[in-house]
């Protein structure tokens, strides 16, 4: 029974989102902190160093941490205001139980955990072990990500656990693994500074990875040329040496077109290719057809832009590729990434200073979160769950029989499908908010409503948690200790600043308690450090080897980059320095890539492309940032960016409400008429709920390899409409209303 | 300030407002941000520009203050109004060519950016320049700027026919020697180069 128990406005009234406007005690009474804790931001994959000021077990403010090398004190607005999640009026401080018609009522931990454990077992006994699924997240520490994977396989004994990195990093990960045999950014960010040309493909760096901007600008001061691919002219695109307004899904046209020109002009490192790679001949044969004119039709831009990009990239002495969700969120996301990375490989410019590439991880632990075994197809150490040797190693570390470890399970969105099909009847989620973040919200909501039992671990009552039967109040990042792995593959240490408030508990203890109730004796940890030490052993000998990394080393060395197989190993900030790659043959593998259309291209009925993304002041589903006044003031509600040429044909003016409608659903938001977007495309940021949720429109089409949803292109129609006046529109913007 | 200067490079700004959010967290004026982030003309461009107090050598805000409430420190920092003296007349608000001082009715006082005097006087950088992700706001030495960036620093502005010299440096391309500001008509025609910023025009090439 996972329908919301009372109407949304009543839930909003009790659980928010409300806005926290001031630090504990107000602006004027902060006083001197008791202590200052050097830790990291909880939000994006850059994991900036920050100092939190603590007084009376509350975080009362922040101070930049200028010694931490990645960001040297720099922060984006989210980092500045993140501390206001603490001492928040919406904070969940007791376990909650759903009571139909009444809402959520506080209950005891014993009752909440007992009921969750008994429902897990009931569902598994009635429908089979895999009928209970788990969704976890890449904003969890490495310790918690590891724990979730082990919990699913050892305590619950279900194959079906996956994580929200499935919506984020999996296309980049799969591409990297196919080409290099490993899934990690190839270089530390320091290397960006030494590149003479930088290709930024589908990454709105200024808004989604703001600190990286400084690296780009510093490279430019040293003479780097910057190429930006984006359907929208982003702040970095504005002053780029070459801005290419590629149509969404047309990226392979640019990449293959560039490669074709580079082959024609002899800007290929054939010695490197023959010595260190396989599969080039097929790539060369494939891209021969991608003349600039042919490629330009795919990319939707003038052919001269592709030639110019090739002229900048091809002959450069050093180069760096940065890519992100813009090319990854596609039903051909893996192919997009591979086509981009092959521009790096074909020039042999990898594995040395100023030469390489990186995917810009989205979530806080976007890197580590995908290595510790909470992915449907992986075991810790980025091991393959279907590989007998990998299974045997993990079985030894866990102290279980190898056959007892379930096989590969369903990916995130496939779990939603399986709920609809009646194959999955129960769900436990932590660190994710599928109602906002998964495509086709109506379909997702219908799935949650079909569940017989749904338990959620969260610190706020997210839009998804409203559907829960049991809500377990967990912990903020600053209320627990652990590690994450940043965008560079650098493992860093989050320090505990305060205790969880009220009866809220740290997440790892909640999971361990639940495991005990399920009858497992393999979760007897006394601290997250013990989990980390087990994780080190589990990862030992794997691709993502953390064995040599200790919390002490992290503190001493400002982080340690994996692979780090031994305590005296220095870590590996830059991969492939010896020209060897991670495949068994030591080579990098080329793959011929052909462009194919998106699952849903515009047509006569739905003639406009919708693309979605982020704004700088909000993070992912907004469950955290929509509760912070300063961030809401900066961007209170979503909007539809539309070019004046398209707006003119639709009779839409700046500030008008527009209905943006796909075959799956519609949103009503205000129009923002701007010349900085392609006239065939509209853009809506996705951080808001209900009728303001961009994902009501998006399509649940998945990449066949990575299973990432196609957030970046679907077909819509747009029409001017009246200001909405329904009950949801009357809510505050944080809750999905309109101003 | 030990040879440290404040440098403003509008071309680097990405409009993220980290400066605005962080300024609000500063101890001497918590809850009030003293920095403004201007969105130039969003319909045409994503360009934005942060505006801190430029700390004029001969500050017009102080000249027009009838209560002599605005003081400059020996090292050239123009401070917020002195509470006992400020009469809330807003002459300074109206006269500042950069639009920096703001009058706060609830405390009946003008407050403005003082280059984080509480921080800079104890060897820290101003808050905005510390957090700024793009380093459009930078607090460092002139030598370091010259070593690490293309372009050069200027301190001279002309507003109509009025010359202003500021303590804060503007970092500009070599060919720019002073900043000339003329009147534009509000809501008038855009002065932004159409072709560079209109994506539709780029696609027609």
Explain the layout of strands and helices.
The complex is a heterodimer of chains A (739) and B (205).
Chain A: H1 8-15, E1 35-40, E2 49-55, E3 58-64, H2 77-81, E4 96-99, E5 103-106, H3 109-127, E6 132-136, H4 142-156, E7 161-163, H5 170-180, E8 197-201, H6 205-208, H7 212-221, E9 225-229, H8 235-238, E10 242-244, H9 251-265, H10 270-276, E11 277-278, H11 280-287, H12 292-299, H13 303-313, E12 319-323, H14 325-328, H15 333-346, E13 356-359, E14 378-379, E15 383-384, H16 388-398, H17 412-420, E16 426-430, H18 434-437, H19 441-450, E17 453-458, E18 470-473, E19 482-485, E20 490-494, H20 507-517, H21 528-539, H22 551-557, E21 560-561, E22 588-589, E23 608-613, H23 629-634, E24 639-642, H24 644-650, E25 657-661, E26 666-673, E27 681-685, E28 699-702, E29 709-710, E30 714-721
Parallel strand pairs in A: 6-7, 6-16, 8-9, 8-12, 9-10, 11-22, 12-13, 16-17, 17-18, 23-27, 24-26
Antiparallel strand pairs in A: 1-2, 2-3, 4-5, 4-18, 14-15, 19-20, 20-21, 23-30, 25-26, 25-30, 28-29
Chain B: E1 4-8, H1 18-23, E2 36-39, E3 48-51, H2 60-63, H3 91-95, E4 102-104, E5 109-111, H4 117-120, H5 127-131, E6 137-141, H6 142-148, E7 152-159, E8 162-172, E9 179-181, H7 194-197, H8 199-204
What does this structure look like?
The complex is a heterodimer of chains A (739) and B (205). Chain A is α/β, with parallel strands linked by helices and 739 residues long. Chain A folds into four domains: 23-85, Phosphorylase Kinase, domain 1 (2-Layer Sandwich), CATH 3.30.200; 96-168 and 365-561, Rossmann fold (3-Layer(aba) Sandwich); 170-359, 3-Layer(aba) Sandwich (Dimethylsulfoxide Reductase, domain 2), CATH 3.40.228; 608-735, Barwin-like endoglucanases, CATH 2.40.40.20. Chain A has a seven-stranded mixed beta sheet with strand order 5-4-18-17-16-6-7, with helices on both faces. In chain A, helix 3 (109-127) packs across helix 20, helix 4 packs parallel to helix 20 (507-517) and helix 9 packs across helix 13. Chain A is globular, with a radius of gyration of 24 Å. The model of chain A has no long low-confidence stretch (mean pLDDT 97). Chain B is built from eight helices and nine strands. The mean pLDDT of chain B is 92. A five-stranded mixed beta sheet of chain B has the order 6-1-8-7-9. A two-stranded antiparallel sheet of chain B has the order 2-3. Helix content of chain B is 20%, strand content 22%. Chain B has two domains: 1-52 and 116-205, Alpha-Beta Plaits (2-Layer Sandwich), CATH 3.30.70; 58-112, Alpha-Beta Plaits, CATH 3.30.70.20. Chain B has helices spanning 18-23, 60-63, 91-95, 117-120, 127-131, 142-148, 194-197, 199-204; strands spanning 4-8, 36-39, 48-51, 102-104, 109-111, 137-141, 152-159, 162-172, 179-181. With 205 residues, chain B is of the alpha/beta class.
């Amino acid at each position: 029974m996972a329908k919301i128990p009372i109407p949304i406005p009543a839930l909003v009234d009790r659980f928010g989102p409300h806005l926290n406007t001031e630090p504990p005690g107000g602006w004027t009474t902060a006083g001197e902190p008791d202590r200052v804790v050097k830790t990291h931001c909880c939000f994006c994959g850059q994991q900036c160093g920050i100092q939190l000021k603590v007084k009376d077990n509350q975080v009362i403010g922040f101070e930049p941490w200028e010694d931490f090398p990645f960001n040297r004190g720099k922060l984006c607005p989210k980092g500045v205001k993140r501390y206001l999640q603490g001492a928040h009026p919406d904070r969940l401080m007791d376990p909650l139980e759903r009571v139909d018609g009444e809402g959520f009522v506080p209950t005891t931990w014993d009752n909440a955990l007992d009921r969750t454990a008994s429902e897990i077992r009931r569902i598994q006994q009635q429908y089979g072990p895999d009928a209970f699924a788990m969704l976890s997240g890449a904003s969890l520490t490495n310790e918690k990500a590891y724990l979730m994977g082990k919990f699913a396989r050892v305590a619950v004994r279900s194959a079906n656990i996956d994580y929200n990195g499935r919506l984020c990093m999996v296309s980049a990960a799969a591409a990297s693994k196919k080409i290099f045999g490993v899934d990690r950014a190839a270089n530390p960010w320091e290397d960006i500074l030494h590149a003479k040309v930088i290709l930024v493909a589908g990454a709105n760096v200024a808004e989604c990875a703001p600190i990286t901007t400084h690296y780009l600008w510093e490279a430019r001061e040293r003479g780097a040329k910057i190429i930006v691919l984006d359907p929208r002219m982003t702040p970095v695109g504005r002053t780029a040496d070459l801005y290419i307004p590629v149509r969404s899904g047309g990226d392979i046209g640019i990449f293959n077109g560039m490669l074709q020109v580079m082959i024609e002009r002899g800007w290929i490192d054939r010695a490197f290719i023959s010595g260190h790679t396989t599969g080039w001949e097929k790539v060369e044969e494939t891209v021969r057809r991608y003349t600039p004119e042919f490629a330009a039709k795919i990319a939707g831009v003038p052919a001269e832009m592709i030639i110019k990009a090739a002229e900048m990239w091809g002959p450069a002495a050093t180069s760096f590729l940065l890519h992100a969700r813009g090319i990854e969120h596609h039903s051909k996301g893996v192919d997009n990434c591979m086509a981009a990375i092959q521009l790096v490989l074909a020039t042999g410019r990898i594995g040395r200073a100023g030469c390489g590439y990186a995917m810009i991880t989205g979530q806080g632990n976007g890197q580590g979160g995908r290595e510790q075994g909470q992915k449907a197809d992986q075991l810790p150490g980025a091991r393959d769950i279907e590989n007998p040797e990998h299974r045997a190693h993990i079985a030894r570390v866990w102290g279980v029989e190898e056959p007892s470890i379930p096989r590969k399970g369903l990916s995130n969105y496939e779990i939603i499908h399986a709920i609809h099909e009646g194959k999955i009847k129960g769900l436990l989620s932590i660190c994710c908010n599928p109602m906002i973040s998964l495509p086709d919200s109506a379909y997702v909501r219908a799935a949650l409503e079909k569940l017989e039992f749904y338990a959620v671990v969260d610190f706020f009552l997210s839009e998804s948690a409203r559907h829960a039967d049991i809500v377990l109040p967990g912990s903020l990042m600053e209320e627990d200790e652990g590690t994450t792995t940043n965008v560079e593959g650098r493992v860093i240490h989050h320090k505990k600043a305060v205790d969880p408030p009220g009866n809220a508990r740290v997440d790892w203890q909640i999971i361990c308690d639940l495991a005990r109730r399920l009858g497992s004796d393999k979760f007897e940890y006394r601290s997250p450090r013990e989990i980390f030490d087990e994780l080190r052993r589990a990862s030992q000998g794997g691709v993502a080897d953390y064995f040599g990394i200790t919390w002490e080393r992290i503190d001493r060395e400002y982080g340690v980059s994996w692979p780090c197989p031994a305590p005296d190993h220095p870590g590996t900030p830059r991969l492939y320095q010896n020209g060897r790659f991670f495949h068994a043959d030591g080579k990098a593998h080329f793959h011929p890539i052909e462009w194919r259309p998106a699952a849903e291209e515009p047509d006569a009925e739905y003639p406009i492309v919708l693309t979605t993304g982020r704004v700088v002041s909000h993070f992912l589903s907004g469950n955290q940032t929509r509760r912070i006044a300063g961030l809401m003031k900066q961007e209170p509600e979503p909007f539809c960016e539309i070019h004046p040429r398209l707006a003119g044909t639709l009779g839409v003016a700046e500030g008008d409400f527009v209905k943006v409608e796909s075959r799956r659903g519609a949103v009503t938001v205000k129009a923002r008429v701007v010349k900085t977007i392609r006239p065939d495309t509209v853009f809506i940021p996705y951080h808001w709920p209900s009728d303001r949720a961009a994902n009501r429109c998006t399509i649940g089409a998945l990449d066949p390899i990575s299973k990432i949803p196609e957030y970046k292109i679907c077909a819509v129609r747009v029409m001017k409409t009246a200001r909405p006046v329904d009950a949801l529109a009357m809510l505050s913007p944080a809750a999905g209303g309109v101003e | 300030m030990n040879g440290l200067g404040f440098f403003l490079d509008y071309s680097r700004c990405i409009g993220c407002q980290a400066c605005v959010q962080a300024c609000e967290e500063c101890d001497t004026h918590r809850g009030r941000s003293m920095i403004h982030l201007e969105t130039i003309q969003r319909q045409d461009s994503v360009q934005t520009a942060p505006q801190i107090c430029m700390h004029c050598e001969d500050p017009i805000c102080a000249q027009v203050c009838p209560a002599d409430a605005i003081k400059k420190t020996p090292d050239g920092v123009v401070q917020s109004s002195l509470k006992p003296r400020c009469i809330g007349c807003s002459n300074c608000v109206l006269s500042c060519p950069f639009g920096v001082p703001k009058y706060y009715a609830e405390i009946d006082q003008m407050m403005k950016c003082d280059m984080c005097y509480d921080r800079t006087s104890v060897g820290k950088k101003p808050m905005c320049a510390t957090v700024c992700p793009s380093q459009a706001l930078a607090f460092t030495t002139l030598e370091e700027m010259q070593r690490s960036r293309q372009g050069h620093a200027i301190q001279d502005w002309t507003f109509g026919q009025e010359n202003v010299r500021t303590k804060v440096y503007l970092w500009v391309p070599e060919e720019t020697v002073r900043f000339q500001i003329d009147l534009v008509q509000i809501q008038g025609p855009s002065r932004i180069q159409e072709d560079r910023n209109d994506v539709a025009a780029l696609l027609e090439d």
